[in-house]
Amino acid sequence: MNIVLLGAPGAGKGTQAALLVEEFGTPHISTGDMLRAAVKEGTPLGKEAKKYMDAGDLVPDDVIIGLVAERLQQPDTEVGFILDGFPRTSAQAVALDAQLSELGRPLDAALLIDVDSEVIVKRLTSRRMCKECGYIGSAADEACPKCEGEMYQRDDDNEATVRNRLDVYEKSTAPLIDYYRGRDSLVSIDGDRDPQVVYADVKEALHA
Hints:
The structure is a single chain. It contains nine helices and eight strands. The chain is an alpha/beta fold. Strands 2-3-1-4-8 form a five-stranded parallel β-sheet.
């Protein structure tokens, strides 16, 4: 299965991707991880990307598309792929479709984990992390249930920051939903439920 994963920050995309990886062995390709790997390996595209990253600029679409194409030609993607974090705009989606067509690897679905923005605000602002072991819990955890360490709220989980991230998502990424809907490849799943219930619906929708 060849999938693009969509959804706002905090919608639970990572959880669903991890479950798909565990069951089907499909590689979860995060563009952030892919960029860091290419830079570390010193590939020509990695060196090109590093110039922009070091300057604090966004890596141009053509470089990212090249990196995605490079990654999709590695043997582990023969069983499919889950692309996460790219495309972020309609223009990137068009370029990605063209590249996938060249590779003979068309998308099976754009999987949207859909959660109401107010639910996400509540979910993320109540999130707490352990200073010792990194366990992620909630405001109900006075101490870490794993190691008894101190729980704290990350700076990017305060309400103002969360709402800003959601605004950015709506403006830049939400048009992708219309793009994939127009191509009849959008699969929308209600993400405001127990992750295993969501996953059962994901599998059914993907005919997995």
